[in-house]
Amino acid sequence: MTDLTRLTITAAREGLAQGHFTATELTTAYLGAIETAGALNAYVLTTPDKALAMAKASDDRIAKGEAGPLEGIPLGVKDNYAVDGVRTTAGSNILKNFVPPYESSVTANLWQAGAVLLGKLNQDEFAMGSSTESSAFGPTVNPWRRKGSSQPLVPGGSSGGSAAAVAAHLAAGAAGTDTGGSIRQPAAFTGTVGIKPTYGRCSRWGIVAYASSLDQAGPIARSVNDAALLLRAMAGHDAKDSTSVDLPVPDYQQSCGGSVKGKRIGIPREYRVDGMSAEIAALWDKGADMLREAGAEIVEISLPHTKYALPAYYIVALAEASSNLARYDGVRYGERVAGRDIVEMYEKTRASGFGAEVRRRIMIGTYVLSAGYYDAYYLKAQQVRTLIKRDFETVFAEGVDAVLAPATPSPAFGIGEKSGADPVEMYLQDVFTVTLNMAGLPGISVPAGLSSEGLPLGLQLIGRPFEEQHLFALGQVIEDAAGRFEIPEKWWL
Amino acid sequence: MSVDLATVRRVAHLSRIAVTEEEVNHLQGELNAILAFVEQLGEVDTTGVEPMTSVIPMTLPLRADVVTDGFYPERVLANAPLGEDGFFAVPKVVE
């Protein structure tokens, strides 16, 4: 039998439906692959017993003709999704023994659709990072390497475990979250497809909060069609999240392969940032050609406030994080370090439970919200956010259907390369992705080529609110023209 | 704007995060690097611009004011570092 872990979700569904293999066989194949890939550190916890029980239930439903849209498909879930009875840490020591007695709405939707849980995936602590190096479980290693080199590279972040697992065939697909680029940047670094839907499309209930006005759930997959199947199952209205939107979820798969003839695609001149590598610039041009050949019209546009998105993000996100993470006080859940009074208990608990990057971000967030600074920082950043959103509204009103941009300023970098004294160097990773979170817009990252060193590079398509279906149509054009990118060698075996 | 060592200590206390003297020195440099980076927002003219409060225009939904969940204190307390008689336990707060 062919290696079942190589199949896309689309192909696996076909094989299951035709009885070529069972969900139990498929799940067993993935559990075996995970066991051999400890070197990647993609999973922080595997749940083999639960996986096999879920697969058995899927086989029963398939036999009865009651298969759901993701019946028997083995998935990994980022460790910031609460899964009932399964340890959920968000990559932090402060939650190292936290076992939620409830299920996040998005994962509940996935199980409802028939999917199987393989385990929980590594991430930057509390999703704060762009490399998955800040996890309490240690860094995840990118399954991709530079040609002729054995230097370990980061998979991007914060959903780095999700992206690495999908690229290395350790999960058929994965659920990630994206606050400033945390699905799209790791997808670009690992040759996978990642989509951050419109803010409000997926419920945030039961996902460990980082910055509530920016956080969104979304899938990482091996093809555009797989991502469409996953997002359809994950999305939908949820009364438990007051920002969840009550709109019908289209069948996104129908849009994959749909015509893009006559679509107007904007190329924002402000994204040609100083120091953009020639390779990324060439990839961008190539992506525009691919869309043009499929009948789309390419127009140059201006998004004048682009350069202010990242600094505004670091005020809004950190302010919200300082407020959200106040709940980790050593009282209701999480670890506690004793002190001589309650304040010392809080201070010692939080100093020992949070990692360096999280402590830094909480402190900045606290500072910008503190008396006397609120107007200068937080209010100003929220005004700039209005201007960033208005930039997009203007071009959409002028008839632009979607925007094409690079997903990242560079291919994957080495572990330890950007964790020096200046945190801003790492923050610049999100320069092309963060604008969408600030404006609430959907964006898909699709692999479009390889760097001269043999590393995957991604392009990003940005759409109108709640028009993810057009991104799947456009993403499919890129995938059809560029092909899919498989890791040349499973060096970790 | 840049922060001095006293401000770093004050912010750490407001954040309820214990810091050592050595960390205070490090943090001063890191915090100032981030604050210098966000300083560029000063270039943007935001006169008369509404600050964003909701990225997707929507009315906050309301529901009937009734109890819809609960009645399982043992599950609520299951992850508490210290619980007693159905309550969370903390060090003495009031003398």
UniProtKB/TrEMBL annotation, chain A:
Catalytic activity: L-glutamyl-tRNA(Gln) + L-glutamine + ATP + H2O = L-glutaminyl-tRNA(Gln) + L-glutamate + ADP + phosphate + H(+)
Any Pfam family hit: Amidase
Residues of the Amidase domain: 25-471
Record keywords, A-Z: ATP-binding, Ligase, Nucleotide-binding, Protein biosynthesis
Active site residues of this protein: 78 (charge relay system), 158 (charge relay system), 182 (acyl-ester intermediate)
Superkingdom of origin: Bacteria
EC annotation from Swiss-Prot or TrEMBL: 6.3.5.7
Class of enzymatic activity (EC top level): ligase
PROSITE patterns: AMIDASES
UniProt function note: Hydrolyzes indole-3-acetamide (IAM) into indole-3-acetic acid (IAA).
Assembly and oligomerization: Heterotrimer of A, B and C subunits.
PANTHER family: GLUTAMYL-TRNA(GLN) AMIDOTRANSFERASE SUBUNIT A, TRANSAMIDASE
Protein family membership: Belongs to the amidase family. GatA subfamily.
Protein name (Swiss-Prot/TrEMBL): Glutamyl-tRNA(Gln) amidotransferase subunit A
Automatic annotation (TrEMBL), chain B:
Main EC class the enzyme belongs to: ligase
Highest taxon, organism lineage: Bacteria
Gene3D superfamilies for this protein: Glu-tRNAGln amidotransferase C subunit, N-terminal domain
Keywords of this entry: ATP-binding, Ligase, Nucleotide-binding, Protein biosynthesis
Reactions catalysed, as given in the entry: L-aspartyl-tRNA(Asn) + L-glutamine + ATP + H2O = L-asparaginyl-tRNA(Asn) + L-glutamate + ADP + phosphate + 2 H(+); L-glutamyl-tRNA(Gln) + L-glutamine + ATP + H2O = L-glutaminyl-tRNA(Gln) + L-glutamate + ADP + phosphate + H(+)
InterPro entries noted in UniProt: Asp/Glu-ADT_sf_sub_c, GatC
Enzyme Commission code: 6.3.5.-
Pfam families: GatC
PANTHER family listed in its UniProt record: GLUTAMYL-TRNA(GLN) AMIDOTRANSFERASE SUBUNIT C, MITOCHONDRIAL
Function field: Allows the formation of correctly charged Asn-tRNA(Asn) or Gln-tRNA(Gln) through the transamidation of misacylated Asp-tRNA(Asn) or Glu-tRNA(Gln) in organisms which lack either or both of asparaginyl-tRNA or glutaminyl-tRNA synthetases. The reaction takes place in the presence of glutamine and ATP through an activated phospho-Asp-tRNA(Asn) or phospho-Glu-tRNA(Gln).
Subunit structure: Heterotrimer of A, B and C subunits.
Protein name: Aspartyl/glutamyl-tRNA(Asn/Gln) amidotransferase subunit C
Species whose genome carries this gene: Ancylobacter radicis
Gene designation: gatC
